[in-house]
Amino acid sequence: MLIPILLTTSGCSSIKKLDIFTTEVERQPLNLESPEPVKLDKIDWIVVSSENAEEMFARLKKEGYDPVVFGLSDEEYEDLAMNFAQIRAYIIKQNEILKKYREYYEPELQKELNNTSKGE
User: Fold this and answer.
1) Quick count: other Cβ atoms within 10 Å of Cβ 9?
2) Are 13 and 5 in contact (CB under 8 A)?
3) E strand or H helix at 116
4) Nearest in space to 105 (alpha carbons), one of 24, 25, 28
5) Would you list the domain boundaries of the chain?
6) Are 100 and 30 in contact (CB under 8 A)?
7) Which residues of 75-103 are buried (b: 16+ CB within 10 A; e: fewer)?
């Protein structure tokens, strides 16, 4: 019992004072380029229903296309639209995160860009 008490009291007497100081470190620019806008190919949607299927297949054959149908129900089309909306929201969120990082790491550059865009 005496040994643990001696170890704890002798251990405490050898603690040195810790000097704490802070040095501001300059923020390094991110050097990130903004992603280029996506260039999408034009898509012509053709709605094929039970009423116009024969007419649409004949039109496609006449125009030199091999008629192939990729089908979605009306509910699945709504799901597809919702998926694209979620992708768009995600991209907007990621752009905002990138903007905030730039504002933090490159505040002078951001001020310069803001003044340029405002015509000053």
Assistant:
1) 9
2) no
3) helix 107-117
4) 28
5) 35-120
6) no
7) eeeeeeeeeeeeeeeeeeeeeeeeeeebe
> Token pair for residue 102?
């730039």
Dihedral (CA of 83, 84, 89, 90) sign = positive
**Residue given tokens 């979620």 in the structure block:** 86
CA angle (53, 59, 65) in 5-degree steps: 105
pTM (predicted TM-score):
0.57
Segment 2-26, tens digit of pLDDT: 565 555 555 555 677 777 878 877 7
71 vs 58: CA distance, rounded Å:
18
Instruction: Render pLDDT for 29-49 as a digit per residue (tens, 0 to 9).
Output: 777 788 888 898 998 888 888
Report the amino acid identity of residue 120: E
Q: Please give the single-letter amino acid code of residue 77.
A: Y
Tokens representing 18 are: 């810790």
Helix, strand or coil, per DSSP, at residue 56: helix
What distance in Å separates the CA atoms of residue 5 and residue 11, rounded to the nearest whole number?
10
